[in-house]
Amino acid sequence: MSDHTLHFVAPGDFKARARAALDDPALRRSFRGAMDFLQGKRATQFPDDAELQQLRDLGEAVRQHALAQLPALLERLETKLTEAGVHVHWAETAADANAIVLGIAQAKKARRVIKGKSMASEEIELNHYLAEHGVDCIESDMGEFIVQLAGEKPSHIVMPAIHKTRGDIAELFEAHIPGTRYTEDVDELIQTGRRALRRAFADADIGLSGVNFAAADTGTLWLVENEGNGRLSTTVPDTHVAIMGIEKVVEKLEHIVPLSSLLTRSATGQAITTYFNLISGPRRDGERDGPRELHLVLLDNGRTQAYADEQLRATLQCIRCGACMNHCPVYTRIGGHAYGTTYPGPIGKIISPHLLGLDATADLPTASTLCGACGEVCPVRIPIPQLLVRLRTEANRKPDEPVAHPLRGQGANYTRAEDLVWRFWSGAFAHPRAYRAFRWTATRLRALTPAKQMGWTQHRTPLEPAPRSLSDLLRARGQPE
Amino acid sequence: MSARDAILARLRAAAPGVAATSGRVLDARIDTHYDTRRSQAGTAHDPHTLAHAMQAALTASHADVWCATGDAWPAQLAARLAEAGVRRLLLDPARAESAALARALPDTVAPVPFDRPIDAWKADLFDTIDAGFTVARSGIAATGTVVLAPDAGTPRTVSLVPPLHVALVHASTLHPDLHAAVHAERWHAGMPTNLVLVSGPSKTSDIQQTLAYGAHGPRRLWVVIVTDSAARPAATAREDLPQ
After folding, report:
1. Over 90: is that where the pLDDT of B38 sits?
2. pLDDT tens digits, residue range B67-83?
3. Per-domain residue ranges for chain A?
4. In the predicted structure, residue B235 carries a pLDDT above the cut 50
5. What is the pLDDT of residue A459?
6. Tell me, what's the pLDDT at A239?
7. Of A96, A318, A475, B181, most Cβ neighbours within 10 A?
8. How far is A93 from chain B (nearest CA, A)?
9. How far is CA A312 from CA A306, A356, A403, B14, in A?
10. Which residues pair with A239 in a beta bridge?
C-alpha cells in the first residue's frame, strides 16, 4: 500500500465495534427497519420462485462463463474501448489506482471532481487521496453526499446513508448547507441536496463513476442508477473517469440482460431502475455534449488472489446488489460500520480478506452464524457460507504451511495452543487405546472441570463431560461398542 | 513488468481457459428463458397491447403517460406544456416530430435548439431551460422504458438537465422486454457512444427509505405514445428475434 495510508480501515477492532453497535438501540432500530423494508421490496419482485431460481441459474452461468475467460475478456474490452477512443489503465493496487486518477487530474489541471456512486473508489479511498493533493471530490449520490457531509463511510453498498435518520440528515444539512432550515420533510431535504449539488455538476472538471457491468463484445460500460447523478457526472464534465474491478466484465452485452434484472430486483426491489446508462465511448465529432475524454481504470487490488483459487474464485461472481447484507442476521444487528471495511456484511466478509489480507480481517469470517440466508438470496449463487468456512480454515492454518494458493495473512488466527489441542484431539481419535484412556479420565475427573471457560462461558453454561460416555451407556444396554 | 501484464499473467496462470458453459449454450439458455416467459405471459405483442402495458408500467413509475394519434399529439402536448408553464423547450428542429411540435407551440413556449456545444451555454442550459423533448429510438413495454440514443441534434443532456423531460415513443417501436429489444435492435452489432434507458422521473430513497422524486435528473417525465404511426424504419429487423 506504499505511501498512502488508508484512513478508515481498522477491521482489527471488529469485536469492540460490534459490541458498541449492539449496545446502540437507535442504530439497531434503524437497521432492523431498513432491512425488513428491503427484504419486503425484494420479495415483491420475485413472486414466482421458479422464475427466480431459473434467473439465478442464468446469473451464475453468465458470471462463471465470464470469469472462466477473464484475461481474454479484459483484453477484448481494452481493444474495443481503445478503438472507440477510451484510455484504458490497469492498477494492481489501491495506491496505483489513486496515482492514475491523480495523474489524469493533474494533466487536465483539474481542481474539482464530481462523483457518481462508486464502491471501487471507496475501496481505494480516492477522495482522501485526491484531497491530500489539492483536488476536491464531491459525492453526488444523495446517500454518499450525506455520508460525506458527516465525515463517515457508507454503511451499506447500495444505500450508503441507511444508518441515518431523517432527523440526523436535517441537522447535517442545516449545519453544512448555507441557507438551509431544519426540516424532516424528505422531499424538501432532497430538493436541498439537489440545489446544493446543481452547480457542482456544471463546474466540475472531471466526473468520476463506477461501473456495474462491462460488455467485452461491444466495449460498453453499463451504469445503473435512479437519481440521474451518475448520468450528470458522466456527461457534463469534459473528462469522465470510470473505475471498475477487473471481475465486472462479461462476454456479451446481451448477457447483461439477466444480470441487470437480478441486480435491480435483488438490490432495491425494482423491476428496473430509472436509468440504465450505456457508455461506449467519449463524445464524437459533431456531438454537442458528453465527455471529450474518457478513461477506464481496471482495478485488481487483491482480486487476482481470489481468482487463483478455484473455490474462492466464486467470490468474484458478485454483482454488488447487497441482498446478502439485507438478509444477514449479523449485519442487521451490528450495521455496516462495525465491519470497518468498505464492503460490509456477508460479501464484505468474503471479499475483504483478498483486498486487505487475512491478517487485517481474520475476525470477519467468524462473524456469521452460517445460517445460509446470504447464499440463499445471492442472485448469482455465490456459496457464501462455504467460502466463510474456507476463510476460517485459512485464517487458522499454520502461517508457514505450504499450500497451492496461499492467501495474504494466512494463519492470522493461528495459535500454538489451539493447534496443540486439535493435534491432541485428532491423535486421540485416531488411536482407540488413547481415546479410551482419555474417556476414562475425563468422565472420572469431571468434577475438576473449570467453571470459567473463557469465551464459552461468557454467555453459556460451562462444558462438562457426561458422567458416563455414550459407549458405556450402550454397553450397559447390552449393545456392542 | 507493467501492471497490465502482471495482472493478466496472474489471471492466465489460474484461468481454466475453457468456459464450463460454451458461449452458444449460454446464449440459447438466456433466449429460451425469455422466450418461455413471454409465451407463458400469453399476451399478444401487437403495438396496441404493448402500448397499454407500457402505459401501465410507466404510470406505476410515477410518469405521466398518454396515448395519442399521429395527428393529435402535437396540439395536445403543446397545450399541456403551456399549461405547465414551460417557456423554453429544448428540441431538435431537424426532426420531423420536433418540427411538428414546434409548429403547434403557442407563443408562450419558445422552442430552443441545442445548436452549440454544451460548454458554450452550460449555465443557460442549467438555469433557463424548462423542458427537453426527445424522440425515443424505441420502448420496452414490460418495464415502461424509453430507449434514447442521443445524437448531435438531441444530445444526452436534453433528457437529463431540464426539470421536465418529454419523450415521444411510437407504438410501432415497442418491444415486449429488454431481451427482445437487445435482439431486435441488434445491439451487439454496434452501440452509439451513449444509449440511455429511462424508466421514470429521477428519484431516490436514500433518506430513510422514503421515495422522493427529482433527485438530480428531471422531476417529471411525460411520455407520449403515438399509436397510429405507420411502421417506421426504427421498428427494426424483428426476424432477428430468437424464436
Report:
1. yes
2. 999 999 999 999 999 99
3. 65-304, 431-476
4. no
5. 86
6. 98
7. B181
8. 9
9. 5, 15, 14, 12
10. A206, A293
Do residues A55 and A367 touch, judged by C-beta distance below 8 A?
no
Q: A206 near A108, Cβ under 8 Å?
A: yes
**B69 sits in which H/E element:** none
Please indicate if any CB of chain B lies within 8 Å of the CB of A39. Answer: no
Does the CB of B57 have a partner CB in chain A at under 8 Å? yes
B37 touches A at CB < 8 Å: yes
Q: Are A99 and A92 in contact (CB under 8 A)?
A: no
Is-contact B242 B31, C-beta < 8 A?
yes
Residues of B in contact with A259 (CB under 8 A): none
| CA–CA distance, A397 with B93 (Å, rounded to integer) | 70
- The arithmetic mean of pLDDT across residues A277-294, rounded, is 97
User: What distance in Å separates residue A135's CA from the closest CA in chain B?
Assistant: 21
What value does the mean pLDDT take over residues A205-217?
Answer: 98
Condensed to tens digits (0 to 9), the pLDDT of residues A344-399 reads 999 999 999 999 999 999 999 999 999 999 999 999 999 999 999 999 999 999 99
- Cell (9 digits) for B154: 438531441
Tell me: pLDDT of A213 over 70: yes
Task: Return the DSSP state at A283.
Answer: P
Question: How far is it, in rounded angstroms, from Cα B185 to Cα B238?
Answer: 8
What is d(CA A161, CA A163) in angstroms, rounded to the nearest whole number? 5
Q: Can you state the percent helix, strand and coil of chain A, rounding each to 5? A: 55, 10, 35
In this structure, are residues A422 and A428 in contact, taking their beta carbons and an 8 Å threshold?
A: no
Residues 6+ apart with CB under 8 A from A423: none
Hey, is the C-beta of A60 within 8 angstroms of any chain B C-beta? no
The CATH number of the structural domain formed by A65-304 is: 3.40.50.10420
pLDDT given at position B169: 98
- Residue B188 to residue A217, Cβ atoms within 8 A: yes
B-chain CB neighbours of A298 within 8 Å are: 7
Q: Find, among B150, B93, B78, B32, the residue nearest to A258 by Cα.
A: B32
Predicted structure pTM score: 0.93
The three cell numbers of residue A63 are: 458470471
Residue B1 three-state SS: coil
Please, which residues have CB within 8 angstroms of residue B125's CB and are 6 or more apart in sequence? Answer: B90, B118, B157, B161
In the Cβ-directed half-sphere of A440, how many Cα atoms lie within 13 Å? 6
Top-tier CATH class for B44-240: alpha beta
A413 Cα to chain B: minimum distance (Å):
27
SS3 letters across A367-406: CCCCCCHHHHHCCCCCCHHHHHHHHHHHHHCCCCCCCCCC
Please check the confidence at residue A83 and state whether its pLDDT lies above 90. Answer: yes
Cβ pair A210, A244 in contact under 8 A: yes
Domain residue limits, chain B: 1-42, 44-240
Q: In what order do the strands lie in the sheet with B88-90?
A: B64-68, B220-226, B164-170, B131-135, B88-90, B110-112
Q: How far is A472 from chain B (nearest CA, A)?
A: 52
Mean pLDDT value across residues B39-56: 91
Class of residue B24 by CB neighbours under 10 A (exposed 0-12, middle 13-18, buried 19+): exposed
